Amino acid sequence: MSVRVTGLKPSAPVPWWIRPIALLAVGLARLLGRAKPAVLRPVLELVRCGAEPAGEADVSRALDAVLEVSVRCGGEWCLQRALACALTCRMTGTWPEWCTGVRLQPFEAHAWVAVDGKPVGENPHTMPHFRTVWSVPPLVERTGRS
Known about the structure:
single chain; two-stranded parallel sheet
C-alpha cells in the first residue's frame, strides 16, 4: 500500500482499557500484513465470525487506540493500520468493513476501514478517487422477524 499519509494522531482521548487490546492488534496486524492476499482474506473472513457490525463510534475509538499505541500506524503503513483497527474492533465484539483498493491517477494502493461503505478516519478529499478492490464486510445475522 502506498498512500502518503504522515503524522495521523488520535482524534479523541483513548480509554485506558482499550490500549492493551490495540497493542496486541498492532502486533497481529504486522504479522498478517506480511501474508499474501490468498491467505489474508480467509483469515479475516474467519476472524469476523460472531462479531456485530461496528458503528462509526466503535471504529473511531479503535482507530484512535491504534494511533495512540503505534507511531508506525500513524504514518504510511495503511495496511497495518487498517488491519489493527479491524482486529481491535473484533477484540471488542464488533467488525467494520475492511477494505483495500486503488486509485489510478496517480496510481496508489490503500487499505482502510469503513462503516456502511463510508471510510472512517480517512481524508474525505482523496477517498472518492479510490475504488475498492476487495473488502471483508461484517456478517449481518438475519432475525426471524417478518
